[in-house]
Specification:
single chain; about 300 residues; alpha/beta; Rossmann fold
Length: about 300
């Protein structure tokens, strides 16, 4: 199969490219820098609406992972615009290009996030649950809706609502483990908030399952057992051989960091991968303590 991927230079994208190429598939990376493009790459400039749709002709699957990092900076006005445009505008550009093709891909996998549900306490959240409120929930809704032209053109569209993706070398664990390394790690607030998580290995396997299966619409990409923040931090501390005894008070996230801190650290999202499980997908990493211990060994 020929697969076109945006965000191929990111953590998930690189792992997905390696997995696909190892099995003999041809990957076309969508790149913004012509100088770094290699044979098979497709140049695009989503901020300017530039994409040669003909370059996607005959591609079997398109996977859209690109997006300005969500947790890198506080959500100022300009930062929110970058987060929005890098996902919604680029998604609409891709969807319109796909819809215009004579030989359309069989599937368009357009990334989303578990924050689509908003903060919901202890409510168990499946793909049939209603959307939530807040900036990230609204962003996810617009992100998913940007694929509308592809849906209307008859292409199967899937939205992986991904939780925290865990890898031992990069990503969110690099930030979460820093306080533990100086013996200052612990839960956030009261630690009762649910954290949907998934290992990078299962994330890639799940995306490939979405490409090959007949699933459509939103699909939760998270381990079957979400973890409470206190349990996650205790497991992280154990994996790093550090105590988890220094909690960060809720007022710091909500009062100092505002919606940025409150959403990313305190919102409770008890998402479960009902659609994946019903489709026969089998997770390799289901226990958060064992997964963290393995990743950080």
């Amino acid at each position: 199969m020929r697969v076109a991927i945006t965000g191929a230079s990111g953590m998930i994208g690189r792992a997905l490219v390696r997995s696909l190429e190892a099995d003999g598939h041809t990957v076309h990376r969508l790149v913004r820098d012509r100088g770094r493009a290699v044979a098979g790459d497709i140049w695009w400039q989503p901020s300017q609406g530039d994409l040669d749709a003909k370059a996607l002709e005959g591609v079997g699957a398109v996977v859209h992972l690109a997006g300005h990092p969500i947790g890198r900076f506080l959500w100022t006005g300009s930062e929110r615009t970058k987060l929005w445009d890098s996902r919604v505008n680029s998604g609409r550009l891709l969807a319109n290009a796909i819809a215009s093709l004579d030989a359309k891909p069989s599937v368009y996998v357009s990334q989303s996030g578990s924050n689509a549900y908003g903060p919901r306490g202890d409510e168990v959240l499946t793909e049939s649950s209603t959307r939530g409120t807040g900036f990230l929930a609204e962003l996810c809704a617009a992100w998913e809706q940007s694929a509308g032209p592809a849906v209307q053109a008859g292409v199967r569209v899937v939205h992986p609502r991904t939780g925290l993706v865990l890898d031992g070398h990069e990503g969110v664990l690099r930030k979460l483990r820093l306080p533990f390394l100086v013996f200052a790690g612990g839960r956030y607030g009261d630690g009762r908030q649910w954290m949907p998580w998934i290992s990078l290995t299962d994330e890639v396997r799940a995306i490939r399952h979405l490409i090959d299966s007949d699933l459509a619409g939103p699909v939760n990409l998270c381990a079957p057992e979400p973890a409470r923040n206190a349990d996650f931090m205790a497991a992280l501390g154990a994996a790093l051989h550090r105590p988890a005894r220094v909690p960060t008070p809720a007022w710091f996230f909500a009062g100092v960091l505002g919606e940025f801190g409150r959403t990313l650290a305190l919102d409770s999202v008890r998402a479960v991968p009902q659609a994946l499980l019903d489709s026969g997908f089998e997770f390799r990493d289901t226990d958060v303590a064992a997964t963290l211990a393995s990743l950080l060994a």
